[in-house]
Amino acid sequence: MPGGGREQQFSRCCRAPGDSPQGVTRAIQQIERHYGEVLFHRSTRQMRISCFSEGLLEQVRPVLERFEDLWRTPAPVNQDSLSGTVRITAPHSLGTRAVLPALDRVPGRHPAITLDVRLSDRISNTVDDGIDVGIRVGFMRDSRFVARKAAEMRLPVVAAPRLIEKVGAPGDIDALAGLPNALALDTNTGRPRPWHFKAGQQWTPVAPTLIADNADMEIGAALAGVAFAQLADYMAAPYIASGELVQVLQDEEPPAWGLYVYRPQRGPTPGRVRAVFDELLAAVGSLPALR
């Protein structure tokens, strides 16, 4: 092959940013030692590619072209063509209230996305469990996750009007001890979950009327006039507005907690995961709330 074609490309390669003639020369020498063949015929005036190099180049060219394709900037994702499975986790109390509304919108916009929902009140190892998007109450101080605050959750103490008419409303936190109460169990520890009040005060029913490990059982007991309960406002607010539940001890209410939508921080986020993340963020932000 006459000088000036691939030899000129070799010279330009040596002058490319990040490369040096010495580095390229060492690489050529390593390849020549590996194959026991000469890649270039060199003279004082020119350098010619060898016949062996010509054949080797034809063998590796398809591989090199595919390698370059891997590093090309991908085309913008077509939101209409998102597909694949997205695994979601959330507490049971947010299943029908937040997850289901989001799932109602996702299929209409992205019909090729499969939604795998795992409701649980336990704090699972979402990275090991392959969770893509989740909802959690309270701030997440974990660098493995990207979390966005979607809403605030208040914790009112409520009861049905007929129960208040029967036993009276508590005038202070201590008065709760003489009233029928619902006790929630923490499914992570199996222990009673305390009620929270302002200034960091906590109170735990010692003789509860109902013990449950499910928030929907608590609100059911409250609506039935069985017990007082401390509930998330996204559960209680519609019933307070309708008069089916009455809020008590309002002056003792604790600061609001955060409701967060999160996803593991494990590299680039697939378009399908981002789409579901955004829908859950909107759904949690639209939950009923006390104003």
Automatic annotation (TrEMBL):
What Gene3D superfamilies is this protein classified in? 3.40.190.290, Winged helix-like DNA-binding domain superfamily/Winged helix DNA-binding domain
Question: Is Protein transport included in the keywords of this UniProt record?
Answer: no
Q: Which family does it belong to?
A: Belongs to the LysR transcriptional regulatory family.
The name this protein carries in UniProt is LysR family transcriptional regulator
Region named Disordered:
1-21
Query: Which UniProt keywords are given for this protein, alphabetically ordered?
Result: DNA-binding, Transcription, Transcription regulation
* Key word Transcription present: yes
Annotated HTH lysR-type domain ranges read 20-50
Q: Which PROSITE patterns match?
A: HTH_LYSR (PS50931)
